[in-house]
Amino acid sequence: MTVEQVFREEHGRAVAVLVRVFGDVDVAEEAVQDAFAEAVRRWPVSGPPPSPAGWIITTARNKAIDRLRREAVRDGKQVQAALVGDVEPVEEGVVRDERLRLIFTCCHPALAPQARVALTLRLLGGLTTAEISRAFLVPEKTMAQRLVRAKGKIRDARIPYRVPEKEDLPERLSGVLAVIYLVFNQGYGGRDELAAEAVRLGRALAELMPDEPEVLGLLALMLLIESRRPARMVDGELVLLGDQDRGLWDRALVAEGQALVRRCLRMNRPGPYQIQAAVNAVHSDAARAADTRWDQILKLYDQLMVVAPTPVAALNRAVAVAEVEGAGAALAIVDELDLPGYYLFHAIRADLLRRLGRVGDAAAAYDRAIETVENEAELAFLKRRRSRLP
């Protein structure tokens, strides 16, 4: 197993363990980074240890202790440095999953909602500032400042990294759901281990809060999207939903996701994740792309725009409008949106222009999408589409 593989699979757990042990996010994150840097130096020579994850956590813990002891000399942290060598067991509390605990503790109400999500993506997923900024559609510099402010708030306000009490869970739920879904989206864009981790966390959260319909809705949404992964890439090339071989879809995940959607419907407390899951359930009901009930999907997006109106939701709704009312009606909606840094905005606009026969405008829109996309598979797909214009 390579250092990169271990980083992708174990970074979040290592940080979660170190945060629980030391109660300091900066100490934990820096120690884990130091441990991986040490692995980069040593493993190519000596080979990976029998338990790579255990080696990382142990090495990170030792490096954190060394760092705190050094700082104790000049910062008066003698007591903290003396105690870290003999850490008392931490109670499990109501949240027993290590990484899920980290998400809940990061989603403290004292932090701004976007800061909670960004910080958890950084700590749990090991995402770079650039990757997080793309997920939020903001400049990298803006995201870097947001992360610094979030850590400063934790430090200055002495926000404890502890297991939340049962009554604290609901108020932190929206941030937790957003984190898990963004981790999943990063994984579906090419980092398989992040998508698998998001699904695992979604299952753990559903077990923890089985009566929260949005928790079930998020899990259903991820399962239905994940079910299509085997058909999404063929011979290294991206395949759009309408062109996929539906015989390759994971029918067990489809069935599980659809069952969760039906369970949500019985609860009758609709929310954005449930509605998006229902959209994907309609897609999974169609044996062929031509059988898709776009009228149902459009009604669901209409509901989503009432419950949680966002520019991205409006963009997705425009795709359904194109199927029901035509590309012209959809383009009128898209042209009213302000998403200049979002590659899908330009890609969808390019496709609508192509369908309307506006080849020159379509080419320009494809060029803009190519400039803003980051994923290699999606970049290659857009270049193919661009090259096929008349």
Automatic annotation (TrEMBL):
Q: To which species is this protein native?
A: Actinomadura livida
- Outline the extent of the RNA polymerase sigma-70 region domain: 7-72
**Name this protein carries in UniProt:** RNA polymerase sigma factor
Named from the GO MF annotations, one term is: DNA binding
In which family does this protein belong, per the annotation? Answer: Belongs to the sigma-70 factor family. ECF subfamily.
What are the residue boundaries of the DUF6596 domain, all occurrences included? 172-264
Transcription among keywords: yes
- Offer one example of a GO biological process linked to this entry: DNA-templated transcription initiation
* Keyword set includes Endoplasmic reticulum: no
